[in-house]
Specification:
about 220 residues, 6 strands, binds 6-O-phosphono-beta-D-glucopyranose, 6-stranded parallel β-sheet, globular, binds magnesium ion, alpha/beta
Length: about 220
């Protein structure tokens, strides 16, 4: 059967979560707000605007719209300085092999990311051509856990939501996949991602037999 495999980008395909963390932490600290790994976990999968709103909430800070826009632009510049140094070495283990295998099996493959930088990052790691559809932060108006990004992805692939499988490293993303009625596969910590239908540490743990099962079902 032809299924739709939808991949999140940050933290699933590439390890950019660490760069988002560094840039958000600098921003938070510059406002006198503490920023730990735990807080960072809650920003995974969350849009840029919503992330800054959350940080300001945690620090009980309110700022002008102008300052808000300035901080967001600054955060993105700092983040992109990391991104521009990226190459294929930053692909997470067995991601490229998994994409290739699904392609060989004639499966439909989409990107479903909240990031407005997604296309730039795919170019850096030379993966753009692997995707039949790319849906990113420039295509959506509602942030995960809203299922919009994955539903647009399914539509672009012309595959029913219930025949789609989503790979996600964030709580918000797993929730979005579940709400969309798709199979959710958490990539990361099994306690953090316990709402997912299946959880793996990374793609090295995900066998071809398991992928075949997803395709057959
Ligand atoms: C998500 C990341 O993929 O994209 C978030 O997990 C990030 O951390 C969001 O805030 C938006 O990304 P960007 O690149 O448009 O700031
Ligand atoms: Mg992610």
């Amino acid at each position: 059967k032809r299924k739709g495999f939808i991949f999140d980008l940050d933290g699933v395909i590439v390890d950019t979560a660490k760069y988002h963390f560094l840039a958000w932490r600098n921003l938070a600290n510059s406002l006198g707000i503490d920023f730990t790994e735990e807080e960072n976990e809650q920003l995974k999968g969350v849009s840029r605007v919503r992330s800054l709103e959350k940080i300001l909430d945690w620090g009980n800070k309110s700022i002008s719209q102008e300052e808000f826009d300035r901080l967001m632009a600054h955060k993105n510049e700092e983040y992109l300085a990391h991104v521009d140094r990226m190459d294929e070495d930053e692909l997470l283990p067995k991601v490229a092999e998994t994409l290739e295998y699904l392609k060989e099996q004639n499966q439909a493959i989409a990107l479903g990311s909240a990031s407005k930088n997604a296309r730039r990052i795919l170019e850096k790691v030379d993966l753009t051509d692997q995707f039949d559809a790319i849906v990113d932060g420039t295509d959506v108006s509602k942030a995960k856990p809203d299922p919009e990004v994955f539903l647009i992805g399914a539509k672009a692939l012309d595959i029913k939501p219930e025949d789609c499988i989503v790979f996600e490293d964030s709580v918000a993303g797993v929730q979005a996949a579940n709400i969309a009625g798709m199979v959710s596969i958490g990539i990361g910590d099994k306690y953090v991602l316990h709402e997912a239908d299946h959880i793996f540490r990374d793609f090295t743990e995900l066998s071809k037999d398991f992928l075949q099962e997803l395709i057959r079902k």
